[in-house]
């Protein structure tokens, strides 16, 4: 991927925040509200008599946003402009309502880590995080770990081991670290822990390949 001028462990200090933290801007506030709506829709009483009106109002908001949307190609150029820290991805993006969002920091030891508490929209088994969501978080975290290490690539393989159910509503620590580079092959590992116990661990193979930014 073309990550632009992404911070690396060589150039930046311990604890550098590598993702775009939510800001006090209209788009981040609107996205946070949409995230709240996603959760509230799952939690509200199924017999809520106002759901028809809710659907109409939400469709009205979507129509307004669509009327103010440029061509997708044009938006993608805008999305990918800047320093390489994305605001739109589905894991850390404060502008993406499906992102928790996870905030990741780069450590002096070469690892990246962040804490996140996942709630109902991310549920798989009762009270537990969906396995695909864990894989999503870790795939992205490994990608950020590669960028922090200074050599990134596309995921070619992600081997996921689910050790124990990952709880909702509890702080989770998500970590990643580049282990080795062999030509274009990059080996990266990561984990999700809760209460100090590993719930999920992954080994990823990434292949160094530059995907150009939209222009
Ligand atoms: C700060 C922002 C951070 C952003 C983080 C974002 C993280 C998100 C990560 C992703 O989600 S990436 C999207 C999911 N991945 C893809 O869509 C990748 C789709 N697959 C491809 O594009 C290509 O198959 C791939 C780039 C992985 C490899 O194609 P190439 O044509 O560049 O590689 P090639 O076939 O020449 O193989 C190069 C070497 O890698 C090996 N290889 C390739 N794919 C492999 C594979 N899948 N498993 C094992 N080995 C593999 C291959 O055998 C060979 O080894 P040798 O050099 O020893 O011969």
Automatic annotation (TrEMBL):
Pfam family, one: RHA1_ro05818_N
Entry membrane topology: Peripheral membrane protein
Domain RHA1-ro05818 N-terminal helical: 18-74
Domain Thioesterase: 127-186
E.C. numbers: 3.1.2.2
Keywords, comma-separated and alphabetical: Apoptosis, Cell membrane, Cell projection, Cytoplasm, Fatty acid metabolism, Hydrolase, Lipid metabolism, Membrane, Transit peptide
Main localization, broad class: membrane
Subcellular location: Cell projection, Ruffle membrane; Cytoplasm; Membrane
Catalytic activity: decanoyl-CoA + H2O = decanoate + CoA + H(+); (9Z)-octadecenoyl-CoA + H2O = (9Z)-octadecenoate + CoA + H(+); (5Z,8Z,11Z,14Z)-eicosatetraenoyl-CoA + H2O = (5Z,8Z,11Z,14Z)-eicosatetraenoate + CoA + H(+); tetradecanoyl-CoA + H2O = tetradecanoate + CoA + H(+)
Name of the featured protein: Acyl-coenzyme A thioesterase THEM4
Originating species: Rhodococcus maanshanensis
């Amino acid at each position: 991927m073309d990550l632009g001028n992404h911070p690396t462990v060589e150039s930046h200090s311990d604890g550098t925040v590598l993702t775009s933290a939510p800001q006090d801007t209209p788009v981040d506030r609107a996205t946070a509200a949409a995230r709240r709506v996603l959760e509230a829709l799952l939690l509200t009483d199924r017999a809520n008599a106002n759901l028809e009106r809710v659907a109409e109002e939400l469709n009205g908001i979507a129509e307004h946003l669509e009327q103010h949307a440029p061509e997708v190609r044009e938006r993608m150029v805008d999305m990918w402009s800047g320093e390489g820290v994305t605001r739109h991805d589905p894991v850390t993006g404060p502008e993406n309502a499906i992102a928790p969002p996870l905030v990741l920091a780069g450590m002096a030891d070469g690892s990246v880590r962040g804490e996140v508490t996942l709630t109902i929209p991310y549920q798989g088994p009762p009270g537990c995080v969906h396995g695909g969501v864990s894989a999503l978080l870790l795939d992205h975290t490994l990608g950020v770990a590669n960028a922090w290490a200074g050599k990134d690539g596309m995921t070619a393989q992600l081997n996921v081991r689910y050790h124990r159910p990952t709880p909702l509503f509890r702080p989770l620590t998500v970590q990643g670290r580049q282990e080795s580079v062999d030509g274009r092959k990059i080996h990266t590992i990561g984990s999700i822990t809760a209460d100090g116990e590993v719930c999920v661990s992954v080994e990823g193979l990434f292949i160094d390949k530059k995907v150009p930014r939209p222009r």
